[in-house]
Amino acid sequence: MISYHMMDWGPMWWGTWGVFPIIWMIGYWLVFLAIAYLVYRDAESRGMNGLMWAILVVLPWIGILFLIVYLLKRDEVSGRSAESILDERYARGELTRDEYLRMKEDLRRGRE
Prior knowledge:
64% of the residues lie in helices and 0% in strands. By secondary structure, the protein is an all-alpha fold. It folds into two domains: 63 residues, no CATH class; 33 residues, no CATH class. It is elongated, with a radius of gyration of 26 Å.
């Protein structure tokens, strides 16, 4: 009677474990690439260096650490200040000169 062990199936060039480690490794990298893409888009929308953060997230093991650092740091960077938004609204003609100056002064007083 011939007995087979579960580790013995499959062609020899797949190794002892078969094809499963290859599938797992491809899936692992696909997950990291998907996360890196999402981090890239999010960082670019916040005015941060998206490519740098995406590369740091893709690096295995170190990527997890940088993903945590990114998630903590991204809340600190809003991308635009209140004054820049006010300047844009004035430039588009949404505010009169008096409204613009009054709001700008309110922003300056709020910082003191």
